[in-house]
Amino acid sequence: SPAMELPPSHFPAARAAAVAVGYLGYLRGGPARGLQLRELRRARRQDISDVGHKYYLELELEDVLDKDRTVSCTAEVLHHLGSKASAPDVQVTVQGELRSTEEADQEFYSRIRSLEKELVAENIPDSQGNVPPELEPIHLLAWVASGYVTWQNSTENTKLHLAQVKHVKQVKRSDEDLQFDYVILLHEMVSQEVLPWEVTVLWHPRRGARVSRCRALGAGN
Length: 221
Fold this sequence. Notes:
Layout: E1 4-6, H1 11-28, E2 35-48, E3 52-63, E4 66-80, E5 89-95, H2 102-113, E6 120-124, H3 136-153, E7 160-171, E8 178-188, E9 193-204, E10 208-216
Antiparallel strand pairs: 1-2, 2-3, 3-4, 4-5, 6-7, 7-8, 8-9, 9-10
């Protein structure tokens, strides 16, 4: 069937947008760049029989560290019918350039590599909502991690948002990558649950970030 216009304020449109932003945040985010939704400009939904629901989105994103800098993008998010197990298919096209983070990335990399003891931190942001400047890159890498979890685990009926880094510890490695083991709290905006996830993020200035391990802890832990 043809794609149908949705009001951008419509909940299914906002939930699909969260998936697209999570996916892009995972691909293009890092210790010196976080991307968040500024505005959902347009949304359409197409019901593809026996396949699922496909959302076509036009978004404006902003750079968390430089709110005046925005970038437009288009996205397609396909939620498969019935199968809980498969992540939505996402394609995102960014119009224009994202701010270069090369210098900041290198600085962060060198700083962490030169630490005598592995970095350990908890409760970012703290109860007042503050993130100490030296932990901002660690917080932004948690955004990358939450982007991955959001992309891989969202359905049409969920909307995940990073609430807090409960705990993070750096793990020394024999290769060039930095490794951070996180416990992050994700706020599920539909059910209002806060869910803990264990996520391991590997990062290198040339290769970017990737999640090597990720599991839901369940509310009990």
